[in-house]
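User: I've been going back and forth on whether these two constructs are worth ordering. Before I decide, could you fold them both?

Assistant: Sure. I'll take them in the order you sent them. The first construct and its structure tokens:
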Amino acid sequence: MTSPSDFKGQLEDVYLTRKDIMNHFGAKGRRTVDTWMKSENFPKPIKLGGLLRWKLSEVAEWSTNLANRRNKEQSDE
């Protein structure tokens, strides 16, 4: 999968499938994304023609925020 930094200035135009997200983050099953959506402030999907898609910019921001929170938690220990 392409890295978010490869799309500087174009992030709003790129939409990811569930499979894209699973592959990028190493998720083993579809339910992992569902769990993230419920418990970790994962971006809400957009319905395009009845299919769910996520904006790359929102997923990249979520990932960065999650990493920052985890780093902060580790440094507070």
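The second construct, handled the same way:
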Amino acid sequence: MAKRVSVDGWLFTVTLLLVFIGLVMVFSASAVMAKERYGSGYFFLLRQLGWAAAGLIAMVAAMKIDYRRYKHPAVVFTLLGITTLMLISVFFLDRSHNTHRWIHLAGFSFQPSEMAKPALILFLAYFLADKTKAITDWRSTILPAALPTLVFIGLIVFQPDLGTAIACAAITVCVLFVAGMDMRYLGYAFLASLLPLYFLIWHVAYRRARILAFLNPYADPQGKGFHIIQSLIAVSTGGVLGLGLMEGKQKLFYLPEPHTDFIFAVTAEELGLLGSLTVVLLFSIFLWRGIRTAVKTRENFGRFLAVGITSMVVVQAFINMSVVLGLMPTKGIPLPFISYGGSSLFMTLACVGVLLNVSKQAE
């Protein structure tokens, strides 16, 4: 059978549409706040536009590079090593927003945790590509495969950033599942994580407050439950057609970080149910085409890359939208392609470029 000579048009188009929607919504959500804080309503838009341009260039470049070139220990372990060093280095830098998540350089900020996800995907695809027949051996396969994930999760949790750590764990589970891991090991891992999660959530004041606010936000509507309530107000007031672009009210210093974590709430308020469902539909198409690419790729390395990248995007989108709709406790997970955040947008687009190359060479 002849190989396809072009990338997946659906996947490419959906990605461009999501980036475009993201630029529009970042401007709408941030213009008033940017004018108040920085003297220009275009402050966040211009920065996001620059990262989007760089990300699209990286996507096109990655789209043209044979993904099999990444299947080399020098590439895999160099990326793992650099990511580990960057995750450690943030602890020696100044805190930002009471966290050690950022590296600031020449006026730009970068989150090393955003590199952790593609680094893990590449390692898992490389390590598991020739080990599917030994996937039931937990000593020689499952444990070594999960070790980098455990190291990254530990470093990310202490930044602290539990949401990204959970996303890394979810990506690893998806790849291991497709590789054929026995589900009982997933059960063992879940049971083993219960005690650490209990201490990380219930014995950390702000996380415990988030859980309590999630369970009953109206118990403290002006305090712990304020963010969730404002998000639900934004979603509910949008109606079917929305209030209109730039016409939302909740972004006016009611919603926390309306251009990042809660940008989907602004989308629901201004573009309504139809606009929100359009975003959900686009991510659903992304999931469909990503799975289709994985199924059609006969080589394990490419299949695991496709599964990892697809799950990275879709898991984060699911978590973000669930938080906005009050279905999950508040987490600092951006909405891929749409939320403001340069490092997230750039790394996601670069990874999509790899996925597009896999789709191009799938038989």
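Notes on the second construct follow. The chain is about 65% helix and 0% strand. The first helix runs from residue 9 to 38.
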